[in-house]
Structure formats: C-alpha cells, structure tokens
Specification:
Distance between the termini of chain A: 55 Å
Largest sheet of chain A: 6 strands, mixed
CATH architecture of the largest domain in chain A: 3-Layer(aba) Sandwich
Mean pLDDT of chain B: 90
Low-confidence stretches of chain A: 1-13
CATH superfamily of chain B: MetI-like
Strand content of chain A: 35-45%
Number of domains of chain A: 2
Number of strands of chain B: 0
Strand content of chain B: under 5%
CATH topology of chain B: MetI-like fold
CATH topology of the largest domain in chain A: Rossmann fold
Number of domains of chain B: 1
Order of helices and strands of chain A: HEEEHEEEHHHEHEHEEHHEEEEEEEEEE
CATH architecture of chain B: Orthogonal Bundle
Radius of gyration of chain A: 25 Å
Oligomer: heterodimer
Shape of chain A: elongated
CATH class of chain B: Mainly Alpha
Low-confidence stretches of chain B: none
Strand order of the largest sheet of chain A: 6-7-8-3-9-10
Helix content of chain A: 25-40%
Order of helices and strands of chain B: HHHHHHHHHHHHHH
Distance between the termini of chain B: 33 Å
Structural class of chain B: mainly alpha
CATH superfamily of the largest domain in chain A: P-loop containing nucleotide triphosphate hydrolases
Radius of gyration of chain B: 23 Å
Largest interface: A-B, 25 and 19 residues
Mean pLDDT of chain A: 90
Structural class of chain A: alpha+beta
C-alpha cells in the first residue's frame, strides 16, 4: 500500500513523531475521580514516561490517549487535532500492553501482519514489512511460531514489532516490562531506547518503576492521586523534587523537619531542631514556614580532613550497617533525634565505620532541597 | 489406618459404581447383546436395517432435526452468550437467571406449554387472528416447525453456557489490542473474538446435537406423523415387544452419538470447555 510506503520513505528523510497535548483532562468512574485535571505537552519524537504508584491515574491517562476510555472533561489533541471523539481504531497509534496481548490463535507473522491487513496492505508488502520488523526486534525466523511457544521476553518483542510495523507516529506502552525478570528488563530497556532513537517517533510510557523511568525517559511526569505532581527531565526530578512525594517516590531521600528562618545568597536558611542548614527551595517559602529538608543518601558523607566548604553538617551516631554489594548503607541517628541514611561506595579505600561510632555527617548545600 | 486412607476414595465412590453397574451397565450390555443374539447369534438384525426404508426415513428425520436445532440454537444463542459475557454484576445475574430458568423447568412442562401456545386455538393463532394477519388459524402444532421451535427453546442453555464461559475467559486486552491496531468493531469480532470462542461453539454444538439425537418427549408431543424420531421408533418397537429390532436401533443411535462425541473431543479446547461448564 502506498501510504505505508510513503511513511517508510518519510522516515528516511526525517520522519517525525506526533505531538500530543492533554488539556485539563479528567476521568471519573461513577463518583471516583481517577484523573483530576492533567495537562501536558508531549513534543514530537519525545520519550515521556508517566510514573506513579498504582491508582495514581497513569494507566487511565494512557487509555484515554489510546481511546479506550473517554475523558469526563478536558481535551486530548494529537498533532493539533482533538481525538476525543475518535474511536481507537482510527487513531493510528501503536500500543504495547502489559501482558503483551498477542493473539493466541495467530502465528508471530499473522500477529505482526494484523495491523497491516486492517490497513489493506497487500501480501507482498506485508511479508516484507513483517520480516523487517522481526529483524528490528532481533527475532528473525520466528514467523511461524505461535505466541505460546515463545518466552516472555520474545513475546514482548513480538508485541513491540506488531505495534510499530504500521509506522505509527505515536507509541503507547503500558508497563510493557512489568512481567519480566530484572536482567531481561534491563536489556529490553536499552533496546527500547535504541528503537526510540531509530524510529524517531513519540513514545509515551507508563511504569511504576522509578529506575526504569530514570534510565529511559527524556522527561518524566510523576503522577499522584490523579494529578501530575511534577514533570521534568530525570535529573530535574532527582535533584530538584518539588515536594515530599516526588522526593520519596523517585530514589531514596532523607527527610529532616525544619522551620524556615530566611534567605542568604539565594538559599533558604532553615532550622532543623537547633541545627542551621541551607538548601535550595522550589518556591519561595516565608520565614516561619514548617517544611522538610531532603537530601539523597549517596550525597551524605562522613566528615574528614579535606571537607569542602558550603556544606550542611550534623553530629550523629552510627546505629546499623548494611552491606549491599556495590554500596554500604549506614543508618545514623542524629543528636537531635532525626535518622539519616548514608550510602558509601564499598571500596577497599573507604574507611569502615563501626556501629555505635559518633561522627559528623556532611553534605553539600547545593544537594539539599527544601520541600 | 494406612489401608483405610488408601481405600477411602474407592469406598466413597463404591456405592455409585455398584448402582451404575446394576442399573445401567448391565442392562445396557444385555440390550446391546440382544441386538446380535436374538433369536440366535447373528448380524442379521443390522443387515436388515440397511435396506429398511422406515429406519432410513426416521434416521434422516432425526439427523435433520438435530442439525436444524443445532443451527437455530447457535444463531440465537451466540449473541446472548456475547451479551452475557460483557455484562457485569447485577445485570449479568439477571440475564443468567433468564437463560437458566427454562433449564430448571421440566421438559414435559415446557413441551406442554408449547402445545398450548401453538395449538389451533392457541395463543399464537388467537393473536394472529385478532390483529388480522390471518383469516383462518394456521396449522402450527404437529409440524416440523413446532418441533424445531420447541427443541431450540429447550436446548438453548446448552449452547449459551459453554460459549459464554469461553467468552468470559477471553483476555479483555485482546479485543482492545485489535482495535488499537486499527481493526473496526466488526473486524475485532470476526478476526479475534469469534475465532477465539470456537472451543465454546464446538462444545455447545456437541451438547445440543447429541441431546437432539435422543430427544423423545418434545417431538412426540408437538410433532406430527412426519416428525417420527429414532427414540420414538425405539419406544414404539419396545411396546410392540419387537426386542431385537429395538435393541438394534438403540445400538445404532448409541454408536452415532459416541462417534460424534469422539470427533468433537479431538477439536482443540473442547474438553476444557466441557469441564469448565460442568463446574
């Protein structure tokens, strides 16, 4: 068929992904609001991840983009045109489901050929495109197998091939790696990144795995209770979480309750139970505000001779040590009662601390966030 | 103690086994033996069947009725099964009860009900006359049509339940995936839902067809002289004390039934569906 041909050609001359714009999208199931006003602009060719715990509304949002759910309010536009009234089969979106959703009564080739047949692609072109996409997911020669004869990872590759064979400009993925083991998941993550770079199409990816989101995405939208809590690049979210939820959901954080005292050199000065600390704030907190100071465990160090300036410091006692392979975790109790976790690379050159040892903890003020 | 543990299951089923042997297996064997041993050991009874025009006509009527009833229940039952599989909660229970209600009523009662409905002065004819669609009452009762209508009604649950059971077990992501990949609603049905429901269809067809072959009360009550089925012929021959002939007919019906069951059991998935429905 010529439209698929044209698209193949279009790709080689700089084929672009679709833009997706969600405007104040809401979804209520009876009285329960699953999504409460989500607005997001997804750029052409972007890899956006919707990250959140179960029940945060991320899958419902994806289903609305795919057309399997209708928004109760708001608008969804793909390439500038509203698709809210369009049924799923007319949206021309690729989709990968959590449990693959391969058709059990069709062979691998028939599964991959399904979207092409629906578009009236002739048999020869179909065969060529099927072979091409099997090549792309590194499963050449698997044409005549049935899904039940494949491993989980292979099934997911077939599902991926099926969702891109008709050259959609937008690919939606609903926890596609959720059912696979850790090693396979990591290799497929790399493969998906490569595919994303090769195809140049827009990816919207749903996961509850923050590590997966951090490794793969251009941008991450962290969802909580039906809203987007924060949206930004993985570095943004990790280093500058906007609230306590994001700080604890992405990576690990130490939290110290504090009272804002004022500003100095663009940094917030806050009082943590008698110890004055400095940190970066997202908004502009007023003196007297009761907030939380957050710092990542791997940014905290034990004080030594060559300490840099611009650090927060606090005295603590080591209470528990856990060896975790690449890292050693120290659980420390500060003199003011707060607990702080310190992660140190488990090198032979680092000094081992003993349980019960009293020591000063330090960390850069620039790595401190007041939320 | 250990011997009791090992013998436990055997002892639990023993009464039923004895019962079945005494009242089912032994009489059945005796009857089947009679077809080849009366008056002497011979296959003559079966040889006679081959050229017997009465038998051939009755056998054909039976087969045709079973085919029509199976097709009828399939056409009427599939949409109901589809609806049943899509409903959730209260609505699903209501439809299920409507499907099962006739199932729990005696076949005899339902057959008489159809006699009342289809008779010359029955409700259907009265209604047709009242709205002026006909001038004289139609002959509905004691026709093949009456047999088909009544049998389809009585056997519908046997078609609906296995199909609905398969459709309910279908992964809802599959039709979604199909429509996401560009399939219009009819295409989703024809290329994904229908082929995946075939084990249920085969199980339903098997149940209805086999039950139809042996149907007795309904064709006897609402059918006419042309609707003489194999089971009726057997009953008639028993009444006439023509035992060898009756035994021979029974053996033929049993063989035909077993053959069909054996054929269907080979189809993929049918056994699982029958097992699931039995549960």
């Amino acid at each position: 068929m010529d439209s698929v041909e044209t698209l193949t050609v279009a790709k080689s001359i700089g084929f672009q992904g679709a833009t997706v714009v969600l405007t104040a999208v809401e979804k209520r199931f009876d009285a329960v609001a699953a999504v409460r006003g989500v607005s997001v602009d997804v750029g052409a060719g972007e890899f956006l991840t919707l990250l959140g715990p179960s029940g945060s509304g991320k899958t419902t949002t994806l289903m609305m983009i795919a057309g399997f759910e209708t928004p109760s309010a708001g608008d969804i536009a793909i390439d500038g045109r509203s698709v809210v009234a369009q049924p799923p089969h007319k949206r021309n979106i690729g989709m990968v489901f959590q449990n693959y959703a391969l058709f059990p009564h069709m062979t691998v080739a028939e599964n991959i050929g399904f979207p092409l047949r629906q578009r009236g692609v002739d048999r020869l072109t179909r065969a060529r495109l099927i072979a091409e996409s099997l090549e792309m997911v590194q499963l050449p020669g698997y044409d005549s197998r049935y899904p039940r004869q494949l491993s989980g990872g292979q099934q997911q590759r077939v599902a991926l091939a099926r969702s891109i064979v008709f050259r959609p400009r937008l690919l939606l993925m609903d926890e596609p790696l959720g059912a696979l083991d850790k090693q396979l998941r990591e290799s497929l993550q790399l493969e998906m990144r490569r595919l994303h770079a090769d195809l140049g199409i827009t990816f919207i990816y749903v996961t509850h795995d923050q590590e997966e989101a951090l490794t793969m995405s251009d941008r991450i939208a962290v969802m909580n209770e039906g809203r987007i809590a924060q949206i930004g690049t993985p570095e943004d979210l990790y280093d500058r979480p906007c609230d306590r939820f994001v700080a604890s959901f992405i990576g690990e954080s130490n939290f110290l309750p504090c009272v804002v005292r004022g500003f100095e050199d663009g940094m917030v000065v806050a009082d943590c139970d008698g110890t004055l600390m400095r940190g970066v704030a997202n908004g502009s907190p007023a003196p007297g505000d009761r907030l939380t100071l957050a710092v990542r465990p791997e940014r905290v160090r034990f004080a030594g001779a060559d300490d840099p300036v611009m650090t927060n410091r606090i005295w603590a006692t080591v209470t528990e040590i856990v060896f975790a392979g690449e890292r050693r975790r120290y659980l420390c109790r500060c003199d003011n009662g707060a607990s702080i976790v310190v992660k140190e690379p488990s090198s032979a050159t680092t000094i081992r601390r003993a349980e019960g040892e009293r020591i000063e903890l330090i960390w850069p003020t620039a790595d401190t966030v007041v939320v | 103690m250990r011997i009791w543990q090992r013998m436990g299951p055997v002892l639990l089923v023993a009464p039923l086994v004895v019962y079945l042997l005494a009242f089912y297996a032994i009489p059945l064997t005796a009857m089947l033996l009679r077809s080849v041993s009366d008056p002497t050991w011979t296959l003559e009874n079966f040889q006679r069947l081959v050229g017997d025009t009465v038998f051939i006509r009755v056998f054909w009527t039976t087969l045709r009725t079973a085919l029509v009833v199976t097709a009828g229940t399939l056409l009427l039952g599939y949409p109901v099964a589809l609806a049943l599989s899509r409903l959730r909660g209260g609505a699903a229970s209501v439809v299920l009860i409507i499907v099962l209600l006739p199932f729990w009523t005696s076949v005899l009662v339902r057959s008489y009900a159809w006699m009342v409905l289809l008779g010359r002065k029955g409700m259907i004819n009265e209604a047709l006359l009242a709205i002026g669609l006909t001038d004289a009452p139609l002959k509905l009762l004691n026709t093949p049509l009456a047999v088909h209508i009544a049998m389809i009604h009585i056997l519908l649950p046997y078609m609906i339940l296995p199909i609905a059971s398969v459709l309910r077990g279908l992964d809802p992501a599959l039709p979604r995936a199909a429509s996401g990949l560009g399939a219009a609603p009819f295409s989703v049905f024809a290329r994904v839902i229908l082929p995946l429901s075939m084990p249920g269809v085969a199980a339903g067809v098997l149940l209805v067809f086999v039950l139809s072959l042996g149907f007795y009360i309904t064709p006897a009550l609402v059918g006419g002289p042309r609707d003489f089925m194999l089971s009726m012929l057997i009953a008639q021959q028993v009444e006439l004390l023509n035992w060898p002939y009756a035994a021979c007919l029974s053996a033929t019906l049993l063989a035909a039934t077993l053959l069909i069951i054996a054929m269907f059991q080979r189809l993929p998935g049918v056994r699982d569906v029958l097992r699931a429905v039995a549960r």
